[in-house]
């Protein structure tokens, strides 16, 4: 492509918003169009399961930039404008109002909540049924209204979203049940030792955390819902919140016959299989040079940084995206930051630093004598040393030294 006159960004989340900001901050003054399906300027979603639910935070606090930014920086922001089709040959994106032509395109379409099978509902739920999913600001406000009313809340799924919703529900005094299919919540990510600690904290705060449970059916009306389990028990609820994962929104990419596999497949520079089409955020399955495989990361930090990185590459930077995965969560007294990636089958090879039963400790996941991932709980000064330890991938770490909280993380090698 010899000239870059018009960039189109499809999406309304962190990746989309940060890409737009980066393009303008870089001094590029070409025509810039944002197609956001939701009726808001692009916004970041972490607060939807945290501050909005717990402390009544305004969802607008998560806006990447206020609406005035787009006006002041000559950005054609179109909210409520879902992209319906993509023609990579003609370089056009279709909306209900017509076609938009692009020279470069960023797909930041995000992910959608994985929904319960329709076969589980008896009868089929009507509009307004007492079953909720959490993805948008409207979803968060609906759930918050139930929490503030002190209602009975059942959460299906013991992942990050489900446990954050459960923690918020208990803050509001709600009778709260979490149904998790596995033996422990988060065990697939954190391993049994760390997952057990999260389970203990939720139970200590009064959550009825039921593991090894399977939902048989859901009776959902407008005034409440009953969840029936395969063991014959039933839970009456005013609202059921489903948090069983997310599915990348690849419909637009598939329509255009881009390469997809658990997301839109990109190279290390976030370029898709079509010329001048990039992908970023929850939808992007990007080749990571460090891990030598494609990764799709559903976390805020990745969306922000991939959006910025894609913008730089659209402007000709030609740089690989090498950021190490990072995420965080706040659940009762456990405020945690995590860096790295644990390989399959390695989640239980963990070294605990400090007293895991306390409110300040760290965990390090190992590949033989190398730290591949780490997290801290409420030990904020250790984030950068932890990140350095993970990113150096240096061999020869002494597990005994690593476990000693009195020893510097700069001095943990054999």
From TrEMBL:
Residue stretches making up the Reductase C-terminal domain: 326-411
Leader peptide range in chain numbering: none
Molecular-function annotations in GO: oxidoreductase activity, acting on NAD(P)H
Entry keyword annotation includes Flavoprotein: yes
Cofactor: FAD
Keyword flag Cytoplasm: no
GO cellular component, one term: cytoplasm
UniProt keyword list: FAD, Flavoprotein, Oxidoreductase
Segments forming domain FAD/NAD(P)-binding: 6-307
PANTHER family according to UniProt: APOPTOSIS-INDUCING FACTOR 1, RIESKE DOMAIN-CONTAINING PROTEIN-RELATED
Protein name: NADPH-dependent 2,4-dienoyl-CoA reductase, sulfur reductase
Species: Nocardioides exalbidus
